[in-house]
Amino acid sequence: MARYEVQGLDSWGAKELKYGDCGGIYASCSEPKPDSKGTPPRVNASKPPGEWQTFDVVFRAPRFDAAGKKIENAKFIKVVHNGQVIHENVESPRPTCAAHWLDEKPKGPLMLQGDHGPVAYRNILIKSVELP
After folding, report:
1. Fold classified for 1-126
2. Which of 79, 68, 70 is nearest to 26 (CA)?
3. In degrees to the nearest 10, what's the CA dihedral of 56, 57, 58, 63?
4. Is residue 60 a contact partner of residue 128, using CB atoms and an 8 Å limit?
5. CA-CA distance, 94 to 113, in Å (whole number)?
6. 55 φ, ψ to 5°?
7. pTM over 0.85
8. In the chain, which residues have pLDDT < 70?
9. Quick one: pLDDT at residue 114?
10. Quick check: 47 and 17 in contact, CB under 8 A?
């Protein structure tokens, strides 16, 4: 949604994982203070540089009532990196640091970023599903 970020980064061989490592859910950087310090992946599932990485992300947008008031935070229901579950049910209370917009909406575009070196994407499949 251009507001919530799962990090893509070369983290091959990293031992102490942080939210900025590959698969981490970035911290919120919204004012007045961050609501979330970010969430590192459970395990380092990164393959060596030069090999294709895979991500399967099930994400639920924030929910709003009829008046437009947010009633539930955005949530990463499940994130799978190279076949390994690295996140389940991680809330994102506000947009993350690299958010294109800081407001929150029930829908938005997918954005892919590559600001830490060369990156290529292929076989991107987006499927809208109804989540409880």
Report:
1. Jelly Rolls (2.60.120)
2. 79
3. -170
4. no
5. 19
6. -135, 135
7. yes
8. 30-35, 115
9. 72
10. no
Pair of tokens at residue 15 = 């031992």
Contact 75, 59 (CB under 8 A): yes
> According to the model, what pLDDT value does residue 124 have?
92
Q: Which residues of 39-67 are buried (b: 16+ CB within 10 A; e: fewer)?
A: bbbeebbbeeeeeebeeebebbbbeeeee
* pLDDT score, position 24: 94
Q: What is the dihedral of CA 129, 37, 5, 130, to 10 degrees?
A: 10
Residue ranges per domain, the chain? 1-126
The residue whose two tokens read 């009633």 is 71
Give me the pLDDT at residue 117, please: 75
Which residue is associated with the tokens 């709003």? 64
Contact (Cβ atoms closer than 8 angstroms) between residue 42 and residue 22: no
